[in-house]
Amino acid sequence: MTTSTTHALDQAIRLQMTAANQFSGHCDETYLNMVGPFGGMTAATLLNAALQHPARLGDPVSLTVNFAGPVALGDFEVEATPLRTNRSTQHWLLLLRQDGEVMTSATAFFANRRETWSEQVAACPQAPAVDELPRMERHERAWFKHYDMRYISGVFQPGGEESNDSLLWVRDEPPRPLDFAALTAIGDIFAPRIFSRRQAFTPAGTVSMTHYFHATQDDLQRAGSDFLLGQAGASRYHHNYADQIAHLWASDGTLLLTSTQVAYFKE
């Protein structure tokens, strides 16, 4: 379950169950982005419906979110339907509607994880200590102030060095104990890759995003409210779409999340 506090993230993803598989929520300006709210917060809201559903089994293993249209300020409804539940796995359909129209859709896969042989293949990048890096101070979007971001490389700043990749330390601001909802949101904090590649503002936005959760409840507890190390890169920009592959590591080097997404961009 998500942490119950007065933190801005908890307020933003708050849902009230109104009927079987039905929840109501409200979107305000707290996490506002270019068009509608920050996509990571929308994704966390949809996941939260499954997390707090009375029929929930296990923890999230994957979440795919399709951003069909911008969520407007005001009330919305979320339909969270467990499509199939087996002994240790569960599949979900999640729909966010406003005025009867689907604005965001998602599917999620939950499971009771079992103790097995384990190996982390991806190596955590080398990075300077958080205290050696300045906090990025940007105020163009409302959601920026809710994250403490310390860039090591690949920051978007007009006139800066062009790069496909970004590396940074990040955590909620103010600090908040990590859970699956917060991890979901942080997985989308990277600017569209074309921003860093061209070092120029380009109309762009995520169309579809998939998170793969490696983290267990024990991993989240160990991470606490510490910074996570985030890395993002791209494979190809082509015919007004580009991909992104991102990873989030705990400060001890444990891989918590792998994310892929596709974003549109315009000239």
TrEMBL record:
The UniProt entry, under InterPro entries, shows: ACOT8-like_C (IPR049450), Acyl-CoA_hotdog (IPR042171), HotDog_dom_sf (IPR029069), TesB_ACOT8-like_N (IPR049449)
**Organism (species):** Halopseudomonas salegens
Where does the Acyl-CoA thioesterase-like C-terminal domain start and stop, copy by copy? Answer: 124-264
- Check the record and name the SUPFAM superfamilies matching this protein: Thioesterase/thiol ester dehydrase-isomerase
> What is the official name of this protein in its record?
Acyl-CoA thioesterase
The record's annotation in Pfam families points to:
4HBT_3 (PF13622), 4HBT_3C (PF20789)
- Identify the residues that the record assigns to the Acyl-CoA thioesterase-like N-terminal HotDog domain, covering every copy: 33-110
